[in-house]
Design a protein that fits this description.
Number of strands: 15
Strand content: 25-35%
Distance between the termini: 55 Å
Helix content: 10-25%
Oligomer: single chain
Shape: globular
Order of helices and strands: HHHHEHEEHEEEEEEEEEEEE
């Protein structure tokens, strides 16, 4: 037993030294990196090396799609960042249909891949080819959804619910959200996330039903799980725009025609301090291979991915 413990200790020290060397090399070579996603990748690989293996679905992906598409799915799988206050992580509906088994600590510094009940963070996948483009669909299942504005759910419980108006109208069982990637003929990746029955790139209305450049991240809203790509938006000044003197200064501009925006990625660990689930630790499950007959709706108004138009038409704007 002593030899086994000693060997494990040596292996651990070796892995830590290797990680230190890799990190040192990266810091020297690259001035700014997405620390949270790389940290998730590194910690997951170290954990799996110590454990011996980690089942994140690679074998089932290869059987369902072939090696090439399986590699694409793993490469473009999203890193997920959660709005503070959101406790759920996406899980496998075949193992969990209650919010309690999908809950994880709401810790802004946590990169989480298991719920408190021990269930792995799971993403369902689909691959399609249309008109020269490859579409990668990633679907997240949450046991429930609670759409809120300014904690309206808590106010409802304090008022209307006590007066007999029933449960909060923004709540429903079952919630399917998605993150989709479109790879064009040149290999460029554009993405969008599901949000309240449609799609978003950035969070603002200007990105409604738009595809946009990939940053690697999608952000999950508290309660509703509606998604968007976390971005900073800046209005781009244009020649011919009239300056507006406000309070003696130049506080604004009157834009002639639709405004033009510049977007910059907001990255957890650099720009956001919020809980994450980095892509490296997700279990990926091909939707094409599961037994759909075993799925029973808990809310008649919520359709699973295979009953949505976008499942067959990847450019559909209905999510």
């Amino acid at each position: 037993m002593r030899c086994e413990r000693g060997q494990a200790t040596i292996e651990w020290v070796g892995l830590v030294l290797l990680a230190s060397l890799v990190l040192g090399t990266l810091v020297t070579a690259v001035p700014v990196i997405d620390g949270r996603s790389f940290g998730g990748f590194l910690s997951h690989r170290i954990f799996c090396a110590i454990r011996g293996h980690c089942n994140t679905g690679e074998a089932s992906l290869a059987r369902a799609y072939g090696e090439e598409d399986a590699e694409l799915l793993r490469t473009y799988a999203p890193d997920v960042v959660y709005e503070p206050g959101e406790r759920s992580i996406p899980v496998d509906f075949r193992s969990c249909r209650e919010a309690a088994c999908a809950a994880a600590p709401d810790d802004r510094d946590l990169d989480v891949h298991r719920s408190e009940a021990g269930l792995p963070a799971t993403v369902f996948t689909r691959v399609m080819r249309r008109d020269g483009s490859i579409y990668l669909q990633y679907w997240f299942y949450y046991p429930d959804s609670n759409s809120t504005v300014a904690r309206s759910d808590e106010l409802w419980d304090l008022g209307p619910r006590r007066l007999g108006f029933g449960g909060y109208p923004g709540y429903h069982r079952d919630d399917w959200e998605g993150y989709h990637v479109r790879l064009d003929r040149s290999g460029q990746a554009h993405v969008r996330s599901t949000s309240h029955g449609h799609y978003q790139w950035c969070k603002q209305s200007s990105c409604h039903d738009l595809w946009g450049p990939r940053t690697g991240w999608t952000r999950v809203s508290r309660g509703s799980h509606a998604g968007h790509i976390p971005l900073d938006r800046e209005t781009v000044p244009r020649s011919g725009d009239a300056r507006l003197p406000i309070g003696g200064g130049l506080a604004g501009r009157a834009l002639r025609g639709p405004p033009t925006y510049r977007y910059e990625a907001r990255l957890p660990g650099l720009d956001l301090r919020e809980r994450t689930s980095t892509a490296e630790g997700f279990v990926l499950v091909p939707l094409e291979t599961i037994d759909r007959s075993a799925y029973r709706r808990l809310d008649d108004g919520i359709s699973p991915p295979w009953e949505k138009r976008v499942y067959e038409n990847p450019e559909s704007d209905e999510s």
